[in-house]
């Protein structure tokens, strides 16, 4: 599997770091592991950190949109950080941009979420 | 796009063909293979990313929609380079698309239960210079697309 997922919980915020390639093949694992973590912990908000994501296609958009809906249904907020230009372009094309807040790094994302909660 | 492969080389072009099982682990293989083939045109990183993305979209469509995730299907890719242009054809012999205009709508997906984004065709249309879908119910779908690789020109000017 050429995708690794790192999960870290800080209080009510789940940080998910993706490393490698997010496509249809790897999307299922990402979806399952994120949903498990969300159900297990007292997760309210989610930070998706994409610094080491080397490839993403529309299957990735599907997973991200899906997790956005899960978190939104729980009353939380999902934000994304370290978005490279090609992922940014996919966000723009799909309009995901309009519903997801994008931050430069994890620290600014966390600061924002702590203000929210 | 209708050039025969034997004519491609006669005209100083180059080509390659690939066939593989419709398994999701081959998506990464397919996009890396096409990217490796196109390196002879000296593409920029952005151009390479665009090509890898569209190959990934088209191959994923063959697997999910053409063959309904049946690993016994065969996905075929052929790519041609003529001067500075790469042409890519990606096809399956699967179900075919019932309503092509609907399928091309941004955000439309026939499989919302699979969390598909419905952006595949939109991405292919946007990232390539030319894009065409030919589909027949019961016999399969073929995507043809072209992109001119600009990088060399930009470097020498």
Strand and helix layout:
The complex is a heterodimer of chains A (117) and B (157).
Chain A: E1 3-10, E2 13-22, H1 24-40, E3 45-56, H2 58-73, E4 78-81, H3 85-94, E5 101-103, H4 106-116
Parallel strand pairs in A: 2-3, 3-4, 4-5
Antiparallel strand pairs in A: 1-2
Helix pairs in contact in A: 1-2
Chain B: H1 5-10, E1 14-21, H2 26-38, H3 45-66, E2 74-82, E3 85-92, H4 100-104, H5 120-127, E4 130-136, E5 140-148, H6 151-156
Antiparallel strand pairs in B: 1-2, 2-3, 3-5, 4-5
Plain-language structure description:
Chain A is of the alpha/beta class and 117 residues long. Chain A is 46% helix and 32% strand. Chain A has one domain: STAS domain (Transcription Regulator spoIIAA, 2-Layer Sandwich), CATH 3.30.750. Chain A has 4 helices and 5 strands. Chain A has a 5-stranded mixed β-sheet, with helices on both faces. In chain A, helix 1 (24-40) packs parallel to helix 2. Chain A is globular, with a radius of gyration of 13 Å. Chain A starts with a strand and ends with a helix. The model of chain A has no long low-confidence stretch (mean pLDDT 93). Chain B has 157 residues and is an alpha+beta fold. Chain B has helices spanning 5-10, 26-38, 45-66, 100-104, 120-127, 151-156; strands at residues 14-21, 74-82, 85-92, 130-136, 140-148. In chain B, strand 2 and strand 3 (85-92) form a beta hairpin. Chain B starts with a helix and ends with a helix.
